[in-house]
Inverse folding.
């Protein structure tokens, strides 16, 4: 017969109340941990550029750190006090991580320009070595350092709260870890849903502050319930209170601080900053002496999209060859091009209709002059630049993902004579699919049999493999391909790919026309034909270049290697070897 006393009803009720607190706390902190994991990976990818590798590396690093944290938790002797301090620490690091990362990147990249202005150093002097290189490397490593520390602390939560629960029950609980992990998994699932449905639609500072606030509340509740086990607790209460005040300040001013830090990375004065669910949009303005117009530049996710002083060169090359190569130009389709500048140039050819597909409604509103938050002068300037293209009755705008919308159009009888693909460079896995063989094949299916397509194809020199791969992929999808290039001063040497559905290549069609000046006011027949000329050995490595099949990430990887690993450096190949006779 056992001497163990059966718990009475009051004891059972007390233990159940504690279980509700502990299991509920476990679910809350698990949701917070998952959001921190996504937040760190998402923001690190944004500031470091290599989005997909950075996200995977960050998540993997934090998972490893959580495992180490779980091992380290056994050395925490005061489990009640330890858990309370854990929540303060996680809230502090997680809440202020975004601000810390922004400040580090801004300091590392803005310091050279500050020194240049202070000491009047010539713009030709490049600050990319010594201390400046170290600062940039440290800024690039900081996201992973913070992610590791945060993961280490998060990993300690489950073991500590499991030990607290056994202490409350005053006995070993056979299914304790299963209960804790169950709460952890469910809480993490809810955290993932909150991240997708809520956090991605708000400024990232608010997501960090909201998550840290949940940690503070969880810690405060824990302190209240277990105040007898945590004595003295004055330092903990002060810590929670101070963190709460700091989070209120961060919520009030953090978005502006991060915006100012981000603006400091741009050479010119930032005149408008817009964060949409799809991209970060920045417009800068540079005053030019000598009575010339100010230069307005558009950056998307930190990358230059156009500068008003020379965008006509880019858009002339993007639109004119395709319009000349197509036998008919009544029905046109633009994929991307939310700034309306390609649309402007196409309308000069007097088409019957133009359909434009862009994923970002905020971008379209801005360049239509309908963004209520943009300065009046800016809206007027942008509409003047695209000549009010979005208000033209011939234009139909579809707000949606080009990949999905083209698939939808392929199920209809609509056919287009000319397609202009004005999408950002394939610097993100989501964009990579818009450069795939499958996508190009679907585009070809909605084109007239004598139609033509022009694709923005990144730099043929700074990202040569990506440029060649786009051409090969377009050819694999069934187009007759002609690559071409031109110098756009703001970009450097830039490239496009012209494709025809059947028959002669676009180059052969254009060469046979014998045309003079074109409606864009910049190009003429000889200049266009010259754009299709490349150095004699330029295409020697083309047979080894891969086709960008859907899901392969071939173009994305080429682009990342060119710009991230090689920093866009182009090397002229050595001349062919010859014998002494010169043969």
């Amino acid at each position: 017969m056992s001497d163990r006393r059966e718990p009475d009803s009051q004891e059972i009720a007390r233990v159940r109340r504690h279980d509700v607190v502990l299991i509920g706390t476990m679910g809350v902190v698990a949701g917070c941990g998952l959001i921190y994991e996504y937040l760190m990976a998402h923001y690190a990818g944004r500031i470091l550029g290599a989005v997909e590798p950075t996200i995977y590396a960050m998540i993997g690093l934090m998972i490893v750190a959580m495992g180490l944290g779980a091992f380290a938790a056994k050395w925490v002797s005061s489990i009640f006090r330890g858990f309370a301090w854990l929540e303060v620490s996680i809230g502090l690091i997680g809440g202020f991580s975004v601000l810390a990362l922004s400040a580090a990147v801004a300091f590392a990249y803005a310091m050279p320009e500050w020194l240049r202005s202070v000491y009047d150093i010539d713009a030709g002097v490049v600050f990319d070595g010594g201390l400046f290189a170290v600062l940039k490397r440290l800024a690039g490593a900081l996201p992973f350092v913070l992610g590791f520390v945060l993961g280490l602390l998060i990993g300690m939560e489950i073991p500590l709260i499991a030990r607290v629960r056994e202490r409350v029950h005053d006995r070993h609980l056979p299914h304790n870890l299963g209960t804790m992990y169950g709460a952890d998994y469910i809480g993490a699932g809810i955290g993932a849903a909150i991240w997708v449905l809520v956090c991605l639609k708000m400024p990232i500072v608010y997501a960090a502050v909201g998550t840290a606030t949940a940690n503070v509340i969880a810690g405060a509740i824990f302190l209240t319930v277990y105040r007898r086990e945590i004595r003295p607790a004055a330092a903990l209460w002060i810590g929670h209170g101070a963190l709460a005040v700091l989070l209120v300040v961060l919520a009030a001013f953090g978005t502006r601080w991060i915006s100012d830090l981000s603006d400091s990375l741009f050479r010119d004065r930032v005149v408008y900053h817009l964060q949409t669910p799809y991209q970060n949009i920045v417009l800068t303005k540079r005053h030019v002496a000598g009575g010339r117009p100010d230069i307005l530049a558009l950056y998307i996710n930190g990358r230059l999209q156009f500068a008003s002083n020379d965008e006509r060169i880019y858009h002339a090359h993007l639109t004119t060859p395709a319009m000349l190569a197509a036998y008919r130009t009544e029905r046109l389709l633009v994929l991307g091009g939310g700034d309306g500048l390609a649309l402007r140039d196409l309308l000069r050819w007097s088409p019957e209709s133009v359909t434009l597909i862009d994923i970002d409604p905020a971008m379209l509103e801005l360049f239509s002059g309908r963004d209520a938050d943009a300065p009046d002068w800016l809206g007027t300037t942008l509409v003047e630049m695209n000549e009010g293209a979005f208000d033209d009755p011939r234009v139909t705008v579809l707000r949606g993902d080009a990949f999905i919308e083209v698939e939808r159009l392929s199920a209809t009888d609509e056919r287009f004579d000319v397609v202009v693909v004005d999408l950002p460079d394939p610097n993100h896995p989501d964009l990579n699919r818009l450069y795939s063989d499958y996508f190009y094949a679907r585009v070809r299916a909605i084109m007239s049999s004598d139609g033509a397509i022009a694709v923005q194809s990144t730099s043929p020199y700074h990202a040569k493999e990506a440029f060649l791969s786009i051409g090969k992929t377009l050819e694999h999808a069934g187009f007759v391909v002609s690559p071409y290039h031109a110098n756009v001063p703001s970009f450097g040497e830039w490239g496009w790919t012209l494709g025809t559905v059947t028959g002669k290549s676009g180059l052969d069609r254009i060469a046979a026309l014998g045309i003079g000046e074109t409606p864009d006011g910049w190009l003429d027949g000889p200049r266009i034909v010259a754009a299709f000329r490349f150095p004699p050995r330029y295409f020697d490595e083309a047979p080894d270049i891969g086709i960008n099949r859907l899901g392969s990430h071939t173009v994305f990887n080429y682009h990342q290697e060119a710009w991230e690993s090689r920093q866009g450096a182009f090397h002229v190949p050595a001349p062919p070897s010859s014998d002494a006779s010169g043969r």
The mean pLDDT is 88.
